Amino acid sequence: MVETKQIKWKDIKSKIEKKDKSELLKLISTLYSLNKENKMFLNTKFYSEGIPLELFKEKI
Q: Across residues 28-39, what is the average pLDDT?
């Protein structure tokens, strides 16, 4: 039986680095729509000044 190589961040990173801007925006859009945690992370990353931090402290 052949052992499957575990994919690591460096493997993913090398693929991402080859993508153009439109492909990256599409990827981020897909991640954003997948679940509320991704959405919350991106909202906070780009608009943290308008979001109360208490919401995130409760999660932690």
A: 96
